[in-house]
Design goal:
single chain; 330 residues; alpha+beta; Creatine Amidinohydrolase; 31% helix; globular; binds cobalt (II) ion; Methionine aminopeptidase; Pept_M24_MAP; Pept_M24; metalloaminopeptidase activity; initiator methionyl aminopeptidase activity
Length: 330
Amino acid sequence: MCAAFNCSTAVMQRQHFARLRSSRTVYSGVLNMAKGFGFALGPKMINKKSLLVPRKISPKLPIPANIKKPPYGDSGVFPPWGDMPQIQGSEGMKRMRASGKLAAQVLQYAGSIVKPGVTTDEIDRAVHKMIVENGAYPSPLNYGGFPKSVCTSVNECVCHGIPDDRPLEEGDIVNIDVTVYLNGYHGDTSSMFLVGPVSDEAKKLCEVTKHALDEAIKICKEGVPYREIGSIINGIADQHKFGVIRDYVGHGVGQQFHSAPTISHFRNNSSGTMKLWQTFTIEPMLVQGSTKCKTWKDKWTVVTEDGGLAAQYEHTILITPDGAEILTKL
Ligand SMILES: [Co+2]
């Protein structure tokens, strides 16, 4: 699960939308005119599926009494952003490997039930059941009040999609983002799944995003600047004319769900280098069109402003002296 970049980014985003409101009116005028002339322009051209709309969300699922909850489990209050990197000792490493492995197993299982007609709510229920049966807590549940146990982000949804009663349709692409809290440690991973045959462009977007994540992981090791990650990912996105989302970032992970460092997936000049035995996520979001996002009234669902498709892959990694161990790979 990615983190919002920072407060100032959010403020800038709001100001941007205020500015955009006037230009959008002009844009929709052009769109209608274009339709009148019999050619398509705008989101429909980019994303051939009809756009998502808010739908019914089922009640939060219960957590058995024996499961240890994270600090926000009952309150639903956002925990403070940890401003220190999370560096593991031998016990922490052992537990991170266990939570990473479980997250990967749950993600694989969730992907196996993806098919046309299955609702994202059904995926949520399956994920929730498997996580608690394995003695863990589904980290997204009640994180800042998030109502479900997993994020499911379909088509133009960039991240933080809330599972609901929409049945998956042939041609959809869906990101399933699983985080588990096992023995006091979070393991965080996500992947795209294709629903039946999808358009070549959608498939390519998914493949390039996965490739960008894999290549970024390859350069990670002790002492490498974090900004190298953004440089690799942005370079690959550029080659294929895809955009990189800037408002949501990877993050330190461990005993805290989200902490420093913020891992930007776009070209940047941020300071800081990777520390030995540090755990963090890399989770690039690539888009077909505009990299501008908007958030629904539910305060979670993030979609591309122009309705273009978005894809995301995520791993939790451990920095070692000569590379990175992927903790969420089976
Ligand atoms: Co994450």
